[in-house]
Structure formats: structure tokens, C-alpha cells
Amino acid sequence: MSQSIDTINQIIRSRRSIFPPDYIDKEVPRDVIETILENANYAPTHRLTQPWRFTIFRGDGLTKLADFMSDTYRSNATPESFSEAKYEGTRNKVLKSSCILAIVMEVHPDKVPEWEEVAAVSCAVENMWLTATALGVGAYWSSPSNLAALEAFLNLTPTQKCLGFFYMGYHQAKDKPAVRKPIAEKLTWIES
Questions:
Q1: Which residue stretches of the chain are H helix?
Q2: What is the pLDDT of residues 63-122, one digit of tens each?
Q3: Confidence band of 3 (pLDDT split at 50, 70, 90)
Q4: Which residues touch 18 (CB under 8 Å, ≥6 apart)?
Q5: For the segment 109-161, what is each residue's pLDDT rounded down to a tens digit?
Q6: What is the domain range of residue 105?
Q7: Is 108 exposed, middle or buried (0-12, 13-18, 19+ CB in 10 A)?
Q8: Considering the domain boundaries, does residue 133 fall inside one?
Q9: Residue 40: which CATH number?
Q10: How many domains are contained in the chain?
């Protein structure tokens, strides 16, 4: 039992956001992605609504997403605010990734409040992140500013909302310590 807790402690405490500039040119295999997604499926969910949905971009799908993201930036930028560097950076961030998951939430307003669905999807993403960490896959969750256009691009229904992207790739990032204040500063004990 202590070996299990040591392992989970190590994985939780070493999880970090790993960004595309640190990704290397090595494809994350489909079976690894499926393992990551399978663990997402075991997140807690009130009334078993299981609100998480994922659209997976890899291979040529990444090019389609890069085109969409950069074209959306170009069309929303004024001539004065447009930056060629930002345009290229938007494309390259997508293309440097081995895989990107669009994180989609299916709401069930007749069953549970929306915040509970957001919490369930967030737990699913944390399960993915911890699994990716254990498998040596770098990842991070990003919320793009063009969510309305993105929802149309993803062909979402009126009961679905995009909560961002989960970027993934094998990486060469160096380990870095967590920046957390002590848990004792965040606790209130009531014992009598």
C-alpha cells in the first residue's frame, strides 16, 4: 500500500504544465492517447452525467486546427494590432504539438447545475494530466480567446461548450519545483 501512495504522491507533485516549445519531434502513439483518455473517463461525475467529450487533433488534423486558429486570429485583429509573430506563433504552437484535445463539456441542465459539469470535466482533465505525467508526456490546458468561433469549428451542439485545449507532446523540459504556499496556510480545523 505504501508503494502506491508514494507513486501517486510523486506523480501528483511532479505534474507541471509543459508547453509546445519544449516538445520534441516524437509522435505520441494512439494507444498512449487512448490510455490517457480512458483514465479521463474515470473522473467523478454527479448523477453519472459523464459530461466530458474530446475532439482529438493529430496528423493532418493539427494542420486544420493550426489554419483555423491562425486565420481566426488574423480575422479578429485590427490592422494596427495584427502581429505576424503572433500569427506564426499561433500556428507553430499547434504544429509543434503531437496531439491536441479539444475539451468539450456536455451540459445536462435538467439533472445538475452547470458548475458540477465543469467540476467533473476538470477532474477528467486532471486524470489525463496525471496519466500523461506518468507516461512521460508533456501537457497543458489552454483556454483560447476565440471560444465562440471554436465551438462552430468543432460543430458543437447547443448543449455543448468548449473549455479549451489540452496540448500534448513528448518533451525535453527540465524538472522544476512546484510553487505552492504551505497547505497549513489554507486550512481551518474545527475539532470541537
A1: 2-14, 30-40, 60-76, 84-95, 114-134, 147-153
A2: 999 999 999 999 989 999 999 999 999 999 999 999 999 999 999 999 999 999 999 999
A3: confident
A4: 138, 139, 140, 169, 171, 173
A5: 999 999 999 999 999 999 999 999 999 999 999 998 888 889 999 999 999 99
A6: 19-57+97-173
A7: middle
A8: yes
A9: 3.40.109.10
A10: 1
CA dihedral defined by 113, 132, 182, 22, rounded to 10 degrees? Answer: -120
119 located within any domain? yes
Q: Is residue 5 part of a domain?
A: no
The per-residue DSSP string of 135-183 comes to TTEEEEEE--S-HHHHHHHTT--TTEEEEEEEEEEEB-PPP-------G
The grid coordinates listed for 50 are 459523464
Specify the residue for cell string 493529430: 58
The residue length of the chain stands at 192
| Residue 83 lies inside a defined structural domain of this protein | no
